[in-house]
Write a structure and sequence with these properties.
Strand content: under 5%
Number of domains: 2
Radius of gyration: 20 Å
Strand order of the largest sheet: 1-2-3
Shape: globular
Oligomer: single chain
Structural class: mainly alpha
Largest sheet: 3 strands, mixed
């Protein structure tokens, strides 16, 4: 079967918003140096637009009713992510330097409502307002965790890139653990002044205060290296 026409239109509309946001952020780079965090958002937009396009190519794996719902939910997550990102002050500052069209929060919120409509035309509960979605990106738990690590003597290289990647993740603890393990290629590294400052136990005590799994705790503690 093929996807319903409304889902195809919604997919194209999502791609349009993603590419508009990427182009606006890229345009700003012509006038000022952009941070790795902004570059991460541009890359994320491009990756998601490509994945959506691939789903609707004739040689894709096909669709079925349950997958149609899954695609709608996937598009909704993209739209909510854009709402959250655009609400961030540091993104707004970059966009202020672009003359290109970009998606606006009110438009995205309206689109998100349309994506939440089920087959009976009923609107499913929203994930949250723009302020609530912005709060998801800011993630007080993540900020507190980083502040505690710094206070203990851990230095974080590529902190802006780390925050940007965490903002795009469903679980910030899982993303932090992954980046502690393999984040060097993105310029992300956790370091300490010496072998024992802070000690593994001091770092572990901080990590245990947050909802990391046992494996994730090990990834974080074992990858805070000596500078």
């Amino acid at each position: 079967m093929t996807y319903p026409d409304d889902v195809v239109v919604q997919a194209f509309r999502t791609v349009r918003h993603l590419t508009q946001l990427a182009e606006s952020l890229s345009d700003a780079a012509r006038y000022r140096r952009i941070s790795p965090a902004v570059q991460t958002q541009i890359t994320h937009c491009a990756d998601r637009a490509e994945h959506i396009a691939q789903e609707f190519l004739p040689d894709s794996f096909g669709s079925w009713p349950e997958k149609t719902d899954w695609v709608r939910q996937s598009l909704l997550r993209d739209v909510e992510w854009m709402i959250a990102v655009i609400a961030c002050d540091w993104v707004q500052e970059v966009l202020a330097n672009s003359v290109l069209a970009r998606p606006h929060t009110e438009e995205l919120l309206s689109f998100a409502t349309a994506l939440r409509r089920n087959q009976n035309g009923e609107v499913c509960p929203a994930s949250g307002s723009a302020a609530a979605l912005k709060e998801k990106v800011n993630m007080p738990g993540f900020k507190d965790f980083i502040d505690q690590l710094k206070a203990a003597g851990v230095k974080i290289e590529g902190e802006a890139a780390l925050a940007a990647k965490v903002a795009a993740a469903d679980q910030w603890t899982e993303e932090v653990a992954s980046l502690a393990l393999v984040g060097r290629k993105d310029g992300i590294r956790f370091t300490r002044d010496s072998m024992d400052h802070p000690s593994n136990e001091q770092i572990a005590a901080i990590v245990r205060g947050y909802p990391f799994t046992a494996i994730e705790q090990s990834h974080v503690v074992d990858n805070v290296v000596q500078a």
